[in-house]
Model the fold of this input.
Amino acid sequence: MAATMHNFANAAELARNLADKVAASLSTAIAKKGTAEIAVSGGSTPKAFFQELSTRDLDWTKVTITLVDERFVPADNPRSNHLLVISNLLQNKAKAAKFQPLYQPAATVEEAARLSTVATASIGNPFDVVILGMGGDGHTASFFPGGSNLAVALDPKTPRGIITMDAEGAGEPRLTFTFSSLQDAGLLVLHIEGDGKKDVLAKAEGAGDEAEMPIRAVLRRAATPVDIYWAP
Ligand SMILES: O=C(O)[C@H](O)[C@@H](O)[C@H](O)[C@H](O)COP(=O)(O)O
Done:
């Protein structure tokens, strides 16, 4: 599926434009079905975008925000994506939105994935908006090269839901939505910044296995054409 590049002069201009685009998509979904659901990524890139989006004027009471993936840590842990979203997106006007965490206080990450699949079953079928990031190794969500459940995560036949992922580059055990849960979003965005990530994208767009650079699964076979937002 062909991707569309949106290049911006700097991160602040990207954040403003992406916030406008996402706010419009959420508002359209609310007008059409009364609700809107968005799954966002963690990491360092999305912070300015989150802060911009939090100020946009829409009926946030009708919006459910969740995560594309999460580290298996509670929300008071500095590594938590939940904490990142609460601190930067669930602020200002967006404070009125509902947040659905992926982390569950369970004895094992496998049990947490089972509980989180149940807890998220009523949203994202499909998501109205999914915002993906990408690591320097070509991972997205928690689809890491060499990941313990990578084949299951990328398999289009894997049911929607949350699965676990262990990988060298992942740090803690991860909870992640599957490819099947994310790939048909109304608006499917890959948000990357910096020349290094642009080089990684160029490599991912070339020949090679999806297992080597899992972002390739999204670029090559997502049902929704990918909008790539990039700034230096
Ligand atoms: O939990 C996470 O870390 C994210 O969901 C992950 O997929 C992230 O999008 C990439 O690792 C890019 O992270 P940076 O934005 O920090 O480069």
About this structure: The CA atoms of residues 125 and 168 lie 31 Å apart. Strands lie at 4-7, 36-40, 63-67, 69-71, 98-100, 129-132, 162-165, 174-177, 187-193, 226-231.
